[in-house]
Amino acid sequence: MDGSRASDSPGTDVSDVAVGVADVLAAQARLRRYLSATPLHHAERFGCWLKLENLQRTGSYKVRGALNALLAARERGDDRPVIAASAGNHAQGLAWAAYRLGMQAITVMPRGAPDTKIAGVAHWGATVRLHGDSYDQAKAFACELAQQHGYRLLSAFDDPDVIAGQGTVGLELAALAPDVVLVPIGGGGLASGVALALKSQGVRVVGAQVEGVDSMARALQGDERLIEPATSLADGVRVKEPGRLTRRLLADLLDDIVIVREAELRETLVRLALEEHVIAEGAGALALAAGRRVAGKRKCAVVSGGNLDAGVLATLLSEVRPRAPRRPRRRKRERLATQLSQEPAISGISPRTIHTTMKPAITPAPAGATRRRPEQEVFA
């Protein structure tokens, strides 16, 4: 990776900025001392594995990218104060990382950011500035402050060090040997990092976005319009303009994007809490909501964060009535064993022998062939 950083100035050309698997492996080596691997959980009723990044430090995967960016900057001798715009999780990750490393951090958050996330940032000693009503307005203000004071502007997703840090989620998933991994997409940092880590192993990487909050999906289809995102429970992915570096990576690495309806997202979040006892924020439940439309023998969805306001959760639990999950299908062997156990025994002969002797012949025996006794036939 070269010395230029994609996020140091808002107008920087990222066409020559490189990030690859080697950078993800380097990030894993840096983070190992500070962060433990998050657990995997099999959500049987959903038919999907869950990567529980809601149990990460600060309650989100974002701490990986922020910490890796600060550690990499220290290796380069860059000790400037760091400023970042964030809907909440990137700000919390940066605040915790700066606290651990003894560095100065400033975060700019929208006025409507969840109180839980604002309190989390302040807890770790970072300076909090509330500005604008959306992530993009907060980002513009952070750019102004960075230019005025010489701060390092750290993008929440469009930075090589951040992408490499998020990619360590994919490295931890490799041991599961999934055939498809689902990730939420806002600016594209997590999806880019996970795809870098897993595509060489033949894993399909599928992104998830919300209806009306689908800037990356439109950008990958060639639609460059900047449309104000719709209001959504998934505030963590409400990005008006996706990353330029992440867009270039995902154009090559991403297999598909699923657009989820808001009602599906709300129901999935409630089901996660009630059935799997997993508390996820809106963006954290997004990948699992998309999993209904993705086939795979060994699917895994990244639960990207769990910083959900208690009031929002209480409202959802009182308003949303999820449909009862379908009864699981019994495997063929289990059905067969049940049928055999229910067949009566006659004259001391086991049900297995009865089933075998009553089995009709499918193909007649050839002339001259010696037919085995029924008791000797192999039960299939």
UniProtKB/TrEMBL annotation:
GO MF annotations in UniProt: L-serine ammonia-lyase activity; threonine deaminase activity
Q: Which residues fall in a compositionally biased region of kind Basic residues? A: 323-334
Top-level lineage group: Bacteria
Q: Does the keyword Lyase apply?
A: yes
- Positions of the region Disordered? 323-380
Query: What's an example GO BP annotation here?
Result: L-serine catabolic process
**Could you tell me which InterPro entries the record lists for this protein?**
Ser/Thr_Dehydratase, TrpB-like_PALP, TrpB-like_PALP_sf
Q: Which residues, if any, are the signal sequence?
A: none
Q: What is its EC number?
A: 4.3.1.19
Occurrences of domain Tryptophan synthase beta chain-like PALP (ranges): 36-303
- UniProt entry tagged with the keyword Iron: no
Name the cofactor(s) required for activity, per the record.
pyridoxal 5'-phosphate
Keywords from the named record: Lyase, Pyridoxal phosphate
Family indicated by similarity: Belongs to the serine/threonine dehydratase family.
| Protein name, UniProt field | Threonine dehydratase
